Amino acid sequence: MAEQNNLERQKELTEKLSEASRTYYAEDREIMSNFEYDRLYDELKKLEEESGLVMAGSPTENVGYEPVEYLPKEKHASPMLSLGKTKSRDELKEWLGDKEGLLSWKEDGLTVVVTYDEGKLVKAVTRGNGEVGEVITPNARTFKNIPLVIPYKGLLVVRGEAVISYSDFEKINSQEMSADQVYKNPRNLCSGSVRALDPAVAARRNIQLIAFALVSATDHAESGDVPHDFGNSCEKQFVFLKEQGFTVVEYRKVNADTVVQEIEYFEKAIEENDIPSDGLVLSYDDLAYAESLGRTAKFPRGAIAFKWADETAETVLREVEWQTSRTGMINPIAVFDCVDLEGTEVRRASLHNVSVIKELKLGIGDRITVYKANMIIPQISENLTKSDSLEIPSVCPVCGAPSKIVRQVDSEVLTCTGDNCPAKKLRSFVHFVERDAMNIEGLSEATLEKLIGAGLLHEFKDIYHLKDKSEAVLSLEGFKEKSCANLMESIEKSRHTTVPRLIYAMGIPGVGAAVAKLISGHFSHSIEDMKKAGIDELSEIEGVGEVLAGAFCSYMRNETFVSQLDALAGELAVEAANSGNSDNSLSGLTFVITGSLVHFGNRSDLKELIEARGGKVSGSVSKKTECLINNDATSTSSKNKTAIANGVQILTEDDFLAKYMPDYTV
């Protein structure tokens, strides 16, 4: 009977973990935490060892998930295996023995294999299922720190982790994403961005590539290709990669006597580390020795992963706070009895959304266990009581308007239905005055709250009439003549702005600073043309897409929104598209841009530059086209064929800049 129960549990765990892997690798979403996955994985592995039976599809045998269908696929020259893992420091010492090793971060992003030949980046492929990955070369060219040309002229294959930093993640979620698009963590955002069909998406996400392994380096010699000599040292490979311009994963050279001490270094460093990581990797420095150890069906024997032994603490849930955001999403925050985790006092943890609350079956007074995900972010790992008694608010906690649970992507979220919610208004004003928007210094969230509470601010245009209400402003707590004068000066300074800043400041869901710039550039910075635009035209703008186009059009058709936009525009001195630039050297010339770019985030950025100098950019090649800008001059694309047929010159990005904009610095 016990054997039968164990077998059923194996089947259950195999199904759960396989589904978690599928959603994690193929759909860029998580249905369970890393903590929970590791716990269930260890349980399954133990059951398999006891029974001697491994079910088909067991995650202890699989090393990844099949690549999604919409990107070209390619088989890796050598399999990309997972690493064996341990949480024991003593086990690491024993594993290392009398050898020297390199201890480094285990970055948490998406593994990418990049290939260089004759000094140029020629290919980038995702990990995929370890055997077959997705070709994402155009996207990789947009990674902000990746070298496109390197000194080494042989054939070089490198593995790296594509990552988005915590600081960039927070900025992107706050500036580019609407309530139904907010990503849960940097890893999911990075994975989706790296594998996006449109390279412009990857370009504006500040993706970095952190090199962690040199797969092969082959020198091209007259006598034939020969392996590059690294003196049998993994560290020398890292030094070589740095010389080629790669950002190499931070590492420490260790032996059995120093490895524990260096782990402690990384434990302290993780608190300030802006790059997401989920542990460490220990590898042998002796390349020949590591190679001689071979591999198991799933793991190479020359390296091992060290996973943080997540410190958990049991506590009691006392309250769930609900906070209304600018977009109307009402976010739950768990408040519990203070516990000490990783040396810090923790009282609160985000619950993300309604789905998480339902999955945990939470109720006030429940005993819960909490931990710090990757030693940083407080999370609830388990609910020991499972009372499932927590009431979801039926009204917004700020304005009292009815709340509504809506399904967004893979989860349920609570939203405020009130049009005049003070929380929405406050956060909208906070967004309006931030640096990338109207850039008004002195209007902090606390100051805005006072001004709104005093009835001095109702619409954005009211900011530009505060000077007429100086006495009322001075009567508020914290204001003195000097601070009031400084504020009025900052407001006056902000009257001089640009169309992209104005559009971004208006807070259209999903239209972040980058998207506002794309749309503004497409319509030559004409707000009137933007109002008339349809979804189809907006969708064709590289980097926008149908969802954002729909949101933008919806707002531009809303009478209240347009009225506020017009009233605000009347208070401002909005710069023309080519303001401050008297260079009309491209006047009368028409250009066509195609393919991926190196020096610009996307084609719209280059288009904006051309238009700022009096030129025009068309979507199709004709006899009137001055030149076609294409970094792949040998391409057999229709634009290249049309250009050749019409005698139109095809220039690379560098050749174009050298000929038409020699003063432009890239």
Verbal overview:
- The protein is built from 24 helices and 26 strands.
- Helix 1 packs across helix 2 (34-51) and helix 16 crosses helix 17.
- Strands 14, 15, 16, 17, 18, 19 and 20 form a 7-stranded antiparallel sheet that branches. Strands 4, 5, 7, 8, 9 and 10 form a 6-stranded mixed sheet that branches. A 5-stranded mixed sheet has the order 2-13-12-3-11.
- The chain is globular.
- The protein has 666 residues and is α+β, with helices and mostly antiparallel strands.
- It starts with a helix and ends in a 6-residue tail after the last helix.
- It folds into 5 domains: 2-51; 73-306, D-amino Acid Aminotransferase, Chain A, domain 1; 313-390, Nucleic acid-binding proteins (OB fold (Dihydrolipoamide Acetyltransferase, E2P), Beta Barrel); 422-574, DNA polymerase, domain 1, CATH 1.10.150; 590-660, Rossmann fold, CATH 3.40.50.
Task: Sum this structure up briefly.
By secondary structure, the protein is of the alpha+beta class. The protein contains 24 helices and 26 strands. The N and C termini lie far apart (71 Å).
Roughly what fraction of the amino acids lie in strands? 15-25%
**Global shape:** globular
CATH topology-level fold name of the largest domain: D-amino Acid Aminotransferase, Chain A, domain 1
Structural class, from secondary structure content? Answer: alpha+beta
Measured as a percent range, the helix fraction is: 25-40%
CATH class of the largest domain: Alpha Beta
Enumerate the spans where pLDDT stays under 50 for 5 or more consecutive residues. Answer: 577-581
Mean pLDDT over all positions: 83
Summarize the main sheet. 7 strands, antiparallel
Q: N-to-C terminal Cα separation, in Å?
A: 71 Å
Radius of gyration: 28 Å
How many beta strands in the DSSP annotation? 26
